[in-house]
Design brief:
Layout: E1 13-17, H1 22-33, E2 37-42, H2 45-55, E3 62-66, H3 72-86, E4 91-94, H4 116-144, E5 147-152, H5 165-189, E6 193-200, H6 209-212, H7 221-228, H8 242-249, E7 260-263
Helix pairs in contact: 3-4, 4-5
Length: 273
């Protein structure tokens, strides 16, 4: 008989950063549908409230809080709000991230054209924006004696994906951070707190749509390059990130920590030949 309790997320209190974006937003909605209580975190209160409203959740099921993932004071205020409203925090999904134009090398440029200020912004948002929430909310989990953290990596973290220098560097660091924190938590808390990551391949969203698709829906040159290196021959759909996240949040993955699960249609294992 299958033990469905291993997969049960009902009533778990889960914070999702970047939850007004495409993949993290889909994740937040999916977790609500599974019966979890979800905190939507955004830098803009209006967007956070809109995400909660569009989710259809009741006030006891979801909350929208405002704060920057790179500001410890903001995060500590959010932590206090969560504890006051829900009394505990069972999991953190670090979905916030993004890129800046100057940290991207254009086709007619080389690495010498890098805008170091934009590079700093990308590293700050993606790496520090994963580390700081893990520290602030991970401490809550340590005090509770239980919890789970899931980070968002990227298909660009393990191989050279041209142009996205800053983002690739930052996400490679997130992979390392995932392993490092997994070991540290395990050494101090045994199996009570696990840290893993999901590594999305290529999904069409607002930020990359123009890069991958022409106005008529056909692939751009960049889109063709990616599809040709994706054995499944297509881009991912946002809902396809949710199964791995559900698994990693659930008791079905109790003996799994420090892992990066690729959700990429085979992109990461295919050389293209």
């Amino acid at each position: 008989m299958v033990d469905n309790s291993l997969w049960n997320l009902k009533e778990k209190v889960i914070l999702v950063t970047g939850s007004t974006g495409a993949l993290a937003g889909k994740t937040a909605q999916y977790l609500l549908d599974q019966g979890a209580k979800v905190i939507f975190l955004s830098r803009n209160q209006e967007r956070a409230d809109q995400a909660v409203s569009e989710s259809g959740a009741t006030p006891d099921q979801a909350a929208g809080f405002v704060g920057s993932v790179t500001d410890r004071d903001d995060l500590e205020k959010v932590r206090d709000q969560i504890m006051k409203r829900f009394g505990r925090l069972d999991a953190l999904v670090n979905g916030a991230g993004g890129n800046y134009p100057g940290a991207t090398i254009q086709p007619n440029q080389s690495v010498f054209d890098l805008d170091i200020n934009d590079y700093d912004h990308v590293m700050n948002l993606n790496l520090k924006g994963t580390l700081l929430p893990s520290l602030v909310f991970g401490k809550v989990m340590a005090e509770q004696g239980a919890g789970c953290i899931i980070n968002f990596s990227s298909a660009s973290s393990l191989q050279v994906l041209t142009r996205v220098l800053g983002y690739s560097n930052a996400k490679a660091a997130v992979d390392n951070l995932t392993r490092w924190m997994a070991v540290d938590f395990a050494k101090h808390h045994g199996d009570a707190i696990r840290v893993n990551a999901v590594c999305p391949g290529f999904f069409i969203g607002k930020q990359n749509k123009a890069l991958l698709l022409n106005e008529d829906g056909s692939y751009t040159e960049r889109g063709h390059q990616i599809i040709n290196k994706t054995p499944m021959g297509r881009f991912g759909e946002a809902k396809e990130i949710c199964g791995a996240i559900h698994f990693l949040l659930s008791d079905a993955s109790q003996f799994i920590t420090g892992q990066v699960i690729h959700i990429d249609g085979g992109f990461g294992v295919f050389t293209g030949v």
